[in-house]
């Protein structure tokens, strides 16, 4: 073996830097030459000695120094993948896992059967795999199956500086796994790789690593980068400012690639289009023609899709019947959680095909064909082939210009960049602790990120970075980006950790621990959902709080933890084995997980033509929603019935982009729902083999009683999102008209106008989320019968009324529904739901 047992390591004589096993690699001479230029090559010996001597090693080095591509190769050559074991490498982003596995395979002249990747829904791992790139979520799931990770001899946590939640947890878990493996005399090596030098959270954390691991710094040949600040900070239009800056650089400055940082996919595409029109080159259509054709083409498409939509509408008239759903994809067993970052972009990604927005503004600008510019987009969900283009040299006589999101900051290094244009912003999900309201916000980056971005310009020669903000603004930036774990709710993590029998989550060695309040809120929710055992109420408050933070998991919780969805949704799935509700619950949960199934139609229109299109679509979507929601019981399931109906109808229509476009559905979201349905179905079958009948779930429309059960299941899952309509006698003033009261918010909340229950105003509802625009709006609303509340949601009730027959009432001070244990439920209302799992 390459190393002795870590416990004895220090007393043993130094092991040789290269173990006896040396696996030769047959690289091409060109590749070898290119490798030798990388700074990390001169550190190979130091790194490998440190790895041999210490169980945990930290490797730091500028982006592009060769950490990701080279360290796995060093380990391979040193025999760390002999005896059928695997070198595992985790990445926070899917795009990096795929790209890096391809690159390393190519450098080593090995097939992707040997150097492979695994991400949420796909992978090419085989029996022969020796180096496996994966997203951090994939490894976390593997730990649940095999806590000791016995098939790995080394695990590399890459991009640890990103501080993604799963990376943080992996570091904490692996610190323990490493010592367990040492005790078993099957040592596991952990290598943490990071781009910036800020590793104190890892090294100065006694609880995480009692003995600080050695840090190896890779010096890179970084050329000086001149940073130019804007005199003032543009307030709104940083995209326009980017455009102007790129034009200037391209017209006036010497050769060298340009890299632009923007915040999201839609912005990236808009700027790419604008730049391509401004600087066309051979092989591209001249811009005027492109523009014209665009609008003609779009009108034609619109007319055609309207005709198709009419046809499709006729086709959707009969209720969904036995064969209405196409076969689900095979799904595969890769039910892992995925890094958030990718999802965020996805949630925001506008459907390009539907994007009718014209670029406006530069209509008067003459295209300049004398300065060809090779413009390429780069963001995490770009197809791998298109993403690989940024590594190719640009066509002769053109200048490369890559317009990227944050992925280009550290995950991928683009060759030949001399100019960086940095808008200074980044898009991040923002959670409101109290309300649970989440939104995407564009915020300033940190100083460390801004410097990292600037550094991209000095890789091959001295470069320039243009910051579209002033130095005063820069000095107000946070020094470092905050760890993600401190900015989001943690109930899913707490559940996963409890499932790993880590009961005292407060004691877990997080690199940066989440706040105790966040942990408490998570435990409280999980207790209410029945996933954790409630502590004894008799204990004194303080003890109660302490014991709250160490509640063990329940059988229901274990089932819930196997589903790759948020705990509220997992509860719904766990409950829906009854009455044949599973396929419907799976569909509803999949559709809720993939946010924003419907296209954003409230956006401002750039032209009259677009306005007409949007209006037409809005009317059509409203009509379809009413149709999908149906009447009676089905309408009471509300927006969730709409999701069920929309997915059903779309699958019936072959899940075509045309159907989606015609009905205002996001095609990409629909594909994601389909994949998630397949994945959840597979998971259900694994958890509960008797449910085998769901392998190929063909759904008839739910019966009326099934719809009612679904409503109860949804109520049980979204219990903490219960809202009660403010009755006229409680009306304090006009702002409460048609309003709802939730336990946590003082302000009124309203049913969102896009909801099918907007006019129905049921007395009690549960909602998926609250979004704040002009008012607080509930989205994803479903009606609840009050009589269900004490039975399904006892945790949110107070049973302290006298035993006679008070009507269920609402206590605004406590923010809770006051119900009687012997409420009307047993006499009226629905038959007692069998909610045991
Ligand atoms: P680090 O992980 O330290 O940031 P990498 O190992 O990702 O560095 O990159 C090392 C070098 O390999 C960089 O110069 C980068 O440009 C190059 N590289 C990475 N992937 C590719 C690729 N697919 N094609 C060409 N060059 C690549
Ligand atoms: Mg890297």
Q: TL;DR?
A:
It is built from 29 helices and 23 strands. With 837 residues, it is an alpha/beta fold.
* Portion in beta strands: 5-15%
Biggest sheet strand order reads: 3-4-2-5-6-1-7
**Outline, from the CA principal axes?**
globular
Low-pLDDT runs: 1-13, 284-296, 309-364, 800-837
Bound molecules: adenosine-5'-diphosphate, magnesium ion
Average pLDDT reading? 78
Structural class of the helices, strands and pairings? Answer: alpha/beta
Q: Radius of gyration in whole Å, from Cα?
A: 28 Å
Q: Can you count the beta strands?
A: 23
Residue share in helix: 25-40%
The major β-sheet equals: 7 strands, parallel
Query: What count of helical segments does DSSP give?
Result: 29
N-to-C span = 47 Å
Describe the structure.
- This protein has 837 residues and is of the alpha/beta class.
- Helix 6 packs across helix 7 (165-183) and helix 22 packs across helix 25 (639-652).
- Helix content is 38%, strand content 14%.
- Strands 3-4-2-5-6-1-7 form a seven-stranded parallel sheet, with helices on both faces.
- The longest helix has 30 residues, at 287-316.
- The structure holds adenosine-5'-diphosphate (ADP) and magnesium ion.
- Residues 67-68, 158 line the site of magnesium ion.
List the helices and strands and how they pair.
Elements: H1 6-9, H2 29-36, H3 44-53, E1 56-61, H4 67-77, E2 86-91, H5 94-108, E3 115-118, E4 131-135, H6 136-145, E5 152-157, H7 165-183, E6 189-194, H8 200-203, E7 215-218, E8 225-229, H9 238-252, E9 257-261, H10 265-278, H11 287-316, H12 340-348, E10 373-378, H13 384-388, E11 399-404, H14 407-410, E12 417-422, E13 425-431, E14 438-444, H15 447-455, E15 463-467, H16 471-476, H17 491-499, H18 516-528, H19 541-548, H20 555-562, H21 567-575, H22 582-593, H23 608-629, H24 632-636, H25 639-652, H26 657-662, H27 667-687, H28 704-717, E16 722-725, E17 740-741, E18 749-751, E19 764-772, E20 776-784, H29 789-792, E21 797-798, E22 809-811, E23 816-818
Parallel strand pairs: 1-6, 1-7, 2-4, 2-5, 3-4, 5-6, 8-15, 9-11, 9-12, 10-11, 12-15, 18-20, 21-23
Antiparallel strand pairs: 13-14, 16-17, 16-19, 19-20, 22-23
Helix pairs in contact: 4-5, 6-7, 9-10, 17-18, 17-20, 20-21, 21-22, 21-28, 22-25, 22-27, 23-25
The chain binds adenosine-5'-diphosphate and magnesium ion.
Magnesium ion (MG) binds at residues 67-68, 158.
């Amino acid at each position: 073996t390459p190393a002795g047992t870590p416990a004895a390591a220090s007393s043993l004589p130094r092991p040789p830097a290269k173990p006896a096993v040396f696996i030769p690699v047959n690289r091409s001479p060109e590749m070898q030459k290119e490798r030798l230029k990388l700074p990390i090559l001169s550190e190979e010996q130091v790194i490998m000695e440190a790895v041999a001597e210490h169980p945990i090693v930290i490797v730091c080095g500028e982006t592009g120094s060769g950490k990701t591509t080279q360290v796995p190769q060093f380990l391979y050559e040193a025999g760390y993948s002999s005896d059928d074991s695997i070198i595992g490498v985790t990445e926070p982003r899917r795009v990096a896992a795929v790209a890096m596995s391809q690159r390393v395979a190519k450098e080593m002249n090995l097939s992707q059967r040997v150097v492979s990747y695994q991400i949420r829904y796909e992978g090419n791992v085989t029996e022969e795999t020796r180096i496996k790139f994966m997203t951090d979520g994939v490894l976390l799931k593997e730990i649940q199956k095999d806590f000791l990770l016995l098939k790995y001899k080394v695990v590399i946590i890459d991009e640890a500086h990103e501080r993604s939640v799963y990376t943080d947890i992996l570091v904490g878990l692996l610190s323990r796994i490493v010592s367990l493996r040492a005790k078993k005399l099957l040592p596991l090596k952990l290598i943490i790789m990071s781009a910036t030098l800020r590793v104190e959270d890892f090294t100065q954390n006694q609880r995480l690593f009692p003995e600080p691991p050695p840090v190896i710094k890779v010096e890179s040949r970084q050329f000086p980068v001149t940073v130019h600040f804007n005199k003032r900070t543009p307030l709104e239009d940083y995209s326009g400012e980017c455009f102007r800056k790129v034009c200037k650089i391209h017209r006036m400055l010497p050769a060298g690639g340009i890299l632009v940082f923007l915040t999201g996919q839609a912005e990236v595409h808009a700027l790419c289009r604008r730049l391509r029109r401004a600087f066309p080159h051979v092989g591209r259509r001249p811009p005027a023609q492109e523009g014209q054709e665009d609008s003609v083409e779009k009108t034609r498409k619109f007319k055609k899709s309207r005709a198709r939509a009419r046809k499709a509408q006729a086709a959707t008239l009969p209720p969904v019947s036995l064969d209405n759903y196409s076969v689900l994809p095979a799904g595969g067993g890769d039910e892992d959680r995925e890094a958030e970052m990718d999802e965020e972009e996805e949630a925001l990604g506008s459907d390009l095909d539907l994007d009718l927005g014209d670029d406006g503004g530069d209509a008067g600008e003459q295209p300049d064909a004398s300065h060809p510019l090779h413009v390429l987009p780069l963001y995490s969900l770009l197809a791998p082939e298109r993403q690989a283009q940024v590594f190719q040299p640009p066509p002769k006589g053109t200048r490369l210009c890559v317009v990227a999101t944050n992925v280009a900051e550290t995950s991928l290094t683009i060759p030949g960049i001399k100019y960086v244009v940095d808008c200074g912003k980044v898009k991040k999900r923002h959670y409101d602790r109290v309300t649970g309201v989440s939104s995407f916000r564009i915020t300033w980056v940190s100083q460390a990120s801004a410097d990292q971005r600037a550094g991209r310009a000095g890789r091959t020669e001295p470069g320039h970075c243009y910051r579209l903000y002033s130095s005063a603004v820069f000095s107000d930036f946070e020094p470092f980006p905050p760890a993600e774990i401190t900015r989001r709710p943690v109930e899913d993590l707490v559940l996963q950790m409890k499932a790993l029998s880590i009961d005292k989550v407060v004691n877990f060695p997080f690199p940066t621990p989440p706040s105790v309040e966040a942990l408490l809120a998570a435990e409280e929710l999980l207790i209410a959902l029945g996933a954790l055992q409630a502590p004894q109420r008799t204990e004194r408050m303080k003890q109660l709080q302490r014991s709250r933070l160490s509640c063990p998991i329940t059988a229901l919780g274990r089932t819930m933890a196997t589903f790759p969805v948020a705990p509220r949704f997992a509860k719904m799935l766990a409950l829906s084995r009854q009455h044949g509700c599973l396929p419907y619950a799976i569909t509803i949960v999949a559709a809720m997980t993939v946010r924003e199934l419907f296209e954003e139609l409230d956006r401002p229109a750039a032209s009259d033509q677009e306005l007409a299109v949007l209006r037409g679509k809005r009317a059509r979507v409203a009509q379809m929603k009413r149709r999908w929601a149906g009447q009676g019981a089905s309408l009471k399931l509300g927006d969730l019935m709409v999701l069920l109906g929309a997915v059903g109808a779309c699958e019936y229509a072959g899940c075509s982009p045309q159907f989606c476009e015609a009905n205002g559905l996001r095609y990409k979201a629909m594909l994601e729902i389909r994949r998630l349905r397949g994945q959840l179905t597979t998971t259900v079958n694994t958890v509960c083999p008797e449910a085998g009948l769901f392998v190929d779930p063909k759904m008839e429309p739910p019966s009326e009683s099934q719809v009612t059960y679904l409503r109860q299941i949804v109520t049980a899952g979204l219990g903490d999102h219960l809202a009660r309509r403010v009755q006229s006698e409680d009306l304090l003033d006009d702002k409460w008209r048609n309003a709802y009261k939730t336990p946590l918010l003082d302000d009124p909340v309203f049913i969102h106008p896009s909801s099918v229950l907007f006019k129905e105003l049921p007395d009690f509802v549960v909602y998926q989320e609250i979004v704040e625009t002009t008012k607080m709006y509930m989205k994803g609303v479903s009606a609840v019968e009050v009589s269900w509340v004490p039975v399904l949601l006892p945790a949110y009730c107070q049973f302290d009324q006298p035993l006679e027959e008070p009507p269920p009432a609402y206590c605004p001070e406590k923010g809770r529904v006051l119900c009687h244990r012997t409420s009307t439920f047993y006499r009226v209302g629905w038959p007692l739901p069998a909610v045991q799992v």
